[in-house]
Amino acid sequence: xxxxxxxxxxxxxxxxxxxxxxxxxxxxxxxxxxxxxxxxxxxxxxxxxxxxxxxxxxxxxxxxxxxxxxxxxxxxxxxxxxxxxxxxxxxxxxxxxxxxxxxxxxxxxxxxxxxxxxxxxxxxxxxxxxxxxxxxxxxxxxxxxxxxxxxxxxxxxxxxxxxxxxxxxxxxxxxxxxxxxxxxxxxxx
Amino acid sequence: xxxxxxxxxxxxxxxxxxxxxxxxxxxxxxxxxxxxxxxxxxxxxxxxxxxxxxxxxxxxxxxxxxxxxxxxxxxxxxxxxxxxxxxxxxxxxxxxxxxxxxxxxxxxxxxxxxxxxxxxxxxxxxxxxxxxxxxxxxxxxxxxxxxxxxxxxxxxxxxxxxxxxxxxxxxxxxxxxxxxxxxxxxxxx
DNA sequence: AAACTAAACTAACAAGCGTTAGTTTTATAT
DNA sequence: ATATAAAACTAACGCTTGTTAGTTTAGTTT
Lengths: 189, 189
What we know:
Structural class of chain A: mainly alpha
Oligomer: homodimer
Helix content of chain A: over 70%
Low-confidence stretches of chain A: none
Order of helices and strands of chain A: HHHHHHHHH
Strand content of chain A: under 5%
Distance between the termini of chain A: 53 Å
């Protein structure tokens, strides 16, 4: 369904948008980077907007699928949260550029793409809310404002892309353990 | 030094950029929102870029000044961190729009403004690193990867603007306590 | 060899951009 | 009233933007 060339264009676009932002990347610079004239891009894609939507909705789908796995697990709330931490780490490592593009450029989505992005984001947060509520109910999670918990859990996970690529000491597996330890157990000794 | 009209223009620009992104806001839409023709804006500002720089470097300066206060405190590392949590909350509440503009649009800065932004950001992180190192050294902070600690502390603080405006239950003072409790003590019970 | 198809090309359009020049209005101070 | 200065206006320039039309090239199938 998605040709090799199209994938290449979107991949190059992702790394350009990552560095410069969606609006600053022109079809001409994108074409040059691909090694082609601007008009030729339109043999493969239908619009600039389609490229952005493809990148962002691809990441969003990865999260939706990963959340489905976590929800289906027969496990304690805290273990489901650990599973989600793994999910964020894996997506960040496997789709670093797309992840960064999503976080910084989703506001440039239009129409149905924007609607779909917001829908999947809201659904993800709602699912996490449910897991946290269950944890508070069974006493495994501290009884503080659930929205605050969601937020202080999700922020570091969402912005892993800022930090992970520039550190060298931890691999994915170590990161998973240390991050889970810090997020669940806190900073204090 | 900065006239009333100029402040108004920059303030209107901030809320437009916040919603639409820097590149998507044109001088014509900005002018219309201010109630004036585009060319008239140039009686007060010298360029679109100046507006962005003014917004972002203003927030950056607030952080630099706040960090200076924290550094100068005669207090334990954990109390300095609590002070920084307060700082982030105060800036987020007092300059919500500017804060969001900074986080999402700093990559559109150019030349010396970009250099200055990066300098102040790096300095802030270096100062926080020092505080955390001191805390690890005296045993008050857990001995895990310091970069990971910085990051998982800073992410929720930086993205408070996403969350704080849409919740109603906590005021600034309560938020300060609960957030410090969660960030320092973790989620787990 | 002929026909077909995918994907490149050149050229250009219409729209929108930030910004400037030159002029007029408005308000304040003399 | 008159002069001055601040801040608005109209008009336009030069450029860049995403995209389209029409054509040519290259590779594969019959």
